[in-house]
């Protein structure tokens, strides 16, 4: 049997599958264990090579709090400390920075969260981050991802929900048009995660576009691309997530070659044909 050169936990998920493919494109032999393998220890006694830990919960974290903490922290801790590896990259989220507006969020910034049902996702991610960053190995790393979009993304995400609505007609947005998020295409994210796990020099990276788009920007792209009408619910709340500093990522691995607006336009066209 060939020696494992890379291991992706959560390889059946949206991002994990793309990272697995990106690692194979680099010529690596990639093992994709299941949660049953983790529980039984099957195959876990050999060196796992370069590890990407992509197990996590997204939109269902509020109704599955125990499973969320298990995925983001407890299981991560067992794999991190219970296996042998060359490098270890745990996937986290830029959501942990909150909605600060003073300056772009950097990897070393202090983070303040108030415990609540809604902050469970962020708190469990931060616990996972702390576990990885407290490991003595300099190749134990964290990647905080912004809003990754692409085929197969979770249906609860903002983009997936409005595309599903667009498929049946016009779209009504339920957040203020000035609300904003940072979006990053799946292929770019998978490529940068592969770069980080194979040769990253730092312990933590923001993986984002660094160019937040407002809901109004996204609505205009949708309207132009799909020929539909976008409206806003009256009194919709304003939600602006932190702008993300990507200087560390781009300084080491380079910037995106295309603007995120162009990537989104292509994605919209691929998902839905313009109305006639």
Keywords:
Rossmann fold; 9 helices; 276 residues; six-stranded parallel beta sheet; two-stranded parallel ribbon
CATH architecture: 3-Layer(aba) Sandwich
CATH topology name, in short, is Rossmann fold
Helical fraction: 25-40%
Overall mean pLDDT: 92
Hey, roughly how much beta strand do the residues contain?
15-25%
Which series of helices and strands comes N to C? EHEHEHEHEEHEEEHEEHEHH
* Total beta-strand segments: 12
The name of the CATH superfamily reads NAD(P)-binding Rossmann-like Domain
Structural class: alpha/beta
Biggest beta sheet summary = 6 strands, parallel
SS summary, helix count: 9
How do the strands of the widest beta sheet line up side by side? 2-1-3-4-5-10
Verbal overview:
This protein has helices at 14-25, 35-40, 65-82, 120-133, 158-166, 186-199, 215-226, 247-253, 260-271; strands at residues 6-9, 30-31, 50-53, 87-93, 140-145, 147-149, 171-173, 180-181, 183-185, 204-207, 213-214, 230-232. By secondary structure, the protein is α/β, with parallel strands linked by helices. The chain starts with 5 loop residues before the first strand and ends in a 5-residue tail after the last helix. The mean pLDDT is 92.
What is this structure, in a nutshell?
The chain is of the alpha/beta class and 276 residues long. It is built from nine helices and twelve strands.
Topology:
Blueprint: E1 6-9, H1 14-25, E2 30-31, H2 35-40, E3 50-53, H3 65-82, E4 87-93, H4 120-133, E5 140-145, E6 147-149, H5 158-166, E7 171-173, E8 180-181, E9 183-185, H6 186-199, E10 204-207, E11 213-214, H7 215-226, E12 230-232, H8 247-253, H9 260-271
Parallel strand pairs: 1-2, 1-3, 3-4, 4-5, 5-10, 6-9, 7-12
Antiparallel strand pairs: 8-11
Helix pairs in contact: 1-6, 3-4, 7-9
């Amino acid at each position: 049997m060939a020696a494992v050169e890379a291991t992706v936990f959560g390889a059946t998920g949206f991002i994990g599958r793309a990272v697995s493919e990106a690692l194979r494109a680099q010529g690596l032999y990639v093992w994709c264990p299941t949660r049953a393998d983790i529980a039984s220890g099957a195959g876990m006694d050999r060196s796992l090579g370069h590890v990407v830990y992509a197990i996590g919960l997204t939109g269902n974290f509020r109704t599955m709090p125990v499973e969320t903490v298990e995925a983001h922290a407890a299981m991560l801790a067992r794999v991190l400390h219970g296996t042998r590896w060359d490098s270890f990259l745990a996937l986290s989220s830029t959501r942990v920075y909150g909605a600060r507006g003073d300056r772009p969020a950097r990897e070393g910034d202090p983070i303040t969260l108030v415990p609540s049902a809604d902050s469970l996702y962020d708190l469990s991610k931060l616990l996972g981050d702390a576990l990885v960053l407290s490991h003595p190995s300099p190749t134990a790393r964290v990647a905080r991802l912004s809003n990754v979009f692409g085929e197969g993304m979770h249906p609860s995400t903002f983009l997936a929900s409005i595309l599903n609505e667009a498929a049946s007609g016009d779209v009504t947005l339920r957040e203020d048009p000035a609300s904003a998020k940072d979006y990053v295409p799946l292929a770019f994210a998978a490529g940068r995660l592969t770069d980080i796990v194979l040769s990253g020099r730092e312990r933590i990276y923001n993986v984002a576009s660094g160019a937040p788009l407002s809901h109004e920007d996204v609505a205009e792209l949708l309207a132009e691309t799909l020929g539909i009408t976008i409206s806003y619910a009256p009194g919709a709340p304003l939600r602006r997530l932190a702008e993300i500093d990507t200087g560390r990522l781009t300084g080491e691995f380079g910037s995106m070659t295309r603007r995120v607006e162009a990537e989104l336009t292509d994605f919209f066209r691929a998902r839905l044909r313009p109305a006639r």
